[in-house]
Q: What sequence folds into this?
């Protein structure tokens, strides 16, 4: 920080050299707000204004083009009806069921695997510097690339199945990616592959932050390793669990690209998530009001998770 | 379970049981390393094989006669939609979009973070809270209004073009994407700089103010020279996110010559006409992945820090 002190010394006092104009000084006072204003205005208009616009559209009868005559909650009523249309399943039923399956498995497996790998890596491993980047690099790839890679790897005719057949395990059968009932699980596999390394890094940072004295004291008291982790370490990692959960929940609800690249929507749209539903209905099926209603439902879901979290984060340290 | 994870902190009692523990731990770690490396490995070896070898050989086998042909074809010849000029044009589209978007959003984020920590005003928490929440919205909830606005702007651009001979970038898909990425990236860049500047000693700012330094002088001479780490983090974070974006890219530049790399790659891979050239597809995917992978290899530490900062607030 010595450089800071030096640079501050070189600043030349300028206000003595010119006459103090009140307009000028008032401008100086307002300057910080003027600098912040464009960003804030952009956020208000393009985030909150647009959200209101989307909500408005969801109460209209918009099809291919937006229409601005309010016609009531028809889009929501249709979504609600579709929610229970399970035979044959409506695309909305498929989307939200998939969201449930994908969301739960993705979050749960990423947390479990991330924690497990972090604990393993925290055992004074030689070559940790090599392993960590290997676990983490998928996070740098786009969902499209991840999708392309796994699409190939899981393809029954080219990938894993064929490879095992060649190795002599001819009864091996793995065609989830082409199976409408299982295609969503391939999205889980690819999603976990991409994000679990990052969750590992979060847990590892958390583990490294734990006071070694606590661990030593517990060991002296005769705690076994298992007890040590279950009773002391994991409870201490609670904030990391929360952050990781928020990150994963947010990634899960926003997942769109992965489904497109990995499955192209799956057989008959069987791999759709609500984000895919929204895109298809809004831009391809000319059901703008229904698409907007589904976007509003997605937003509400994220809001219910994020707002309490942000509120507590911002309130925690009043400065 | 308890036997497996004996902590290495316990340095006493080295027995054969301990050696076994170590073997199990290393074995598991290696197994997972394989899991993470496998898709990349398969992608890489496939991109160097001939189609003949792909159809008759093993997915995991190394190429018998490595050929660079698929890479050249992906770069310069493969078909994206109806144009068959490779993905090179789309690669440059992405660069042209990413560079300005990253620079503008990062600089604005730095200024916002500076104001929100060192020039606080009543309601600064609310302003920050509103910008922060914007990071988390599903972009589906703004997708359609933005499409409508961009559509109107592009019609206005045509009018301008006719009237003045210059459209001022209105209606240009690349300009549109830069704008969109700046607007929806502001929340994150502001968050990064705000948290970084929060820890920056306010006394220095106060002292400089007493010396008569102005708002921008303090920013340029004091804040900027000490912001290198957070600049690197933010630039990497934004670069990765914007390069990898698919939703905005497909919604606002999903067709035509201006589509970014991710959309072009998806089109290449999902083309249903003709013989599917898996080796070319894999080479195209590798090319799309290279810039962000390179950033990760060169500056992985900062990459992780950025992800963490985006995840753990306060």
A:
């Amino acid at each position: 920080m010595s450089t800071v002190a030096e640079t501050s010394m070189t600043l030349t006092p300028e206000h003595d050299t010119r006459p103090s104009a009140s307009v000028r000084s008032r401008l100086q006072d307002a300057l910080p707000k003027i600098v912040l204003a464009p960003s804030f205005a952009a956020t208000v208009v393009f985030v909150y204004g647009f959200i209101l616009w989307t909500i408005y559209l969801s109460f209209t009868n918009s099809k291919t083009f937006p229409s601005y005559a309010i016609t009531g909650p028809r889009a929501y009523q249709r979504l609600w009806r579709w929610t229970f249309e399970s035979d044959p399943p409506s695309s909305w039923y498929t989307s939200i069921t998939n969201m449930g399956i994908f969301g739960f498995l993705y979050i749960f497996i990423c947390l479990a695997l991330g924690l497990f790998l972090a604990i393993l890596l925290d055992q004074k491993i030689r070559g940790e510097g090599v392993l960590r980047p290997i676990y983490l690099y998928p996070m740098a790839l786009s969902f499209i690339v991840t999708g392309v890679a796994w699409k190939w790897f899981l393809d029954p005719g080219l990938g894993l199945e064929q490879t095992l057949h060649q190795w002599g395990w001819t009864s091996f059968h793995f065609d989830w990616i082409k199976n409408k009932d299982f295609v969503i699980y391939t999205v889980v596999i690819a999603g976990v592959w991409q994000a679990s390394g990052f969750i590992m890094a979060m847990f590892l940072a958390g583990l490294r932050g734990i006071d070694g004295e606590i661990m030593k004291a517990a060991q002296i008291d005769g705690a076994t390793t298992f007890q040590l982790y279950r009773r002391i370490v994991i409870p201490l990692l609670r904030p990391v669990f929360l952050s990781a959960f928020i990150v994963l929940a947010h990634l899960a609800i926003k997942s769109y690209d992965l489904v497109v690249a990995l499955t192209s929507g799956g057989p008959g749209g069987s791999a759709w998530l609500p984000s895919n539903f929204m895109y298809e209905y809004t831009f391809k099926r000319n059901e703008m009001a229904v698409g907007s209603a589904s976007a509003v439902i997605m937003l509400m879901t994220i809001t219910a998770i994020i707002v309490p979290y942000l509120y507590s984060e911002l309130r925690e340290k009043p400065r | 379970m308890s036997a497996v994870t004996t902590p290495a902190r316990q340095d006493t009692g080295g027995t054969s049981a301990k050696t076994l523990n170590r073997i199990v731990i290393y074995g598991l770690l290696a197994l997972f390393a394989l899991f993470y490396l496998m898709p990349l490995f398969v992608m890489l070896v496939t991109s160097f094989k001939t189609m003949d070898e792909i159809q008759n050989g093993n997915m995991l086998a190394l190429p018998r006669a490595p050929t660079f042909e698929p890479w050249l074809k992906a770069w310069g010849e493969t078909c994206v939609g109806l144009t068959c000029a490779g993905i090179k044009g789309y690669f440059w589209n992405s660069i042209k979009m990413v560079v300005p978007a990253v620079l503008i959003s990062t600089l604005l984020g730095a200024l916002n973070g500076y104001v929100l920590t060192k020039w606080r005003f009543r309601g600064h928490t609310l302003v920050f809270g509103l910008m922060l929440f914007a990071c988390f919205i599903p972009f589906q909830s703004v997708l359609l209004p933005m499409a409508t606005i961009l559509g109107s702007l592009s019609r206005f651009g045509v009018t301008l073009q006719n009237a003045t001979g210059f459209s001022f970038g209105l209606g240009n898909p690349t300009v549109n994407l830069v704008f969109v990425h700046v607007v929806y990236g502001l929340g994150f860049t502001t968050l990064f700089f705000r948290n970084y500047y929060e820890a920056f000693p306010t006394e220095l700012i106060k002292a400089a103010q007493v010396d008569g330094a102005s708002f921008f002088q303090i920013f340029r001479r004091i804040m900027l020279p000490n912001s290198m780490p957070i600049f690197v983090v933010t630039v990497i974070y934004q670069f990765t996110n914007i390069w990898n974006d698919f939703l905005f890219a497909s919604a606002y530049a999903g067709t035509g010559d201006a589509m970014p790399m991710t959309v072009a790659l998806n089109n290449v891979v999902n083309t249903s006409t003709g013989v599917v050239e898996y080796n070319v597809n894999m080479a195209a995917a590798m090319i799309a992945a290279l810039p962000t992978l390179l950033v990760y290899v060169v500056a992985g530490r900062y990459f992780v820090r950025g992800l963490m900062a985006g995840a753990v607030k306060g």
Summary: Chain A touches chain B through 122 residues (CB under 8 Å).
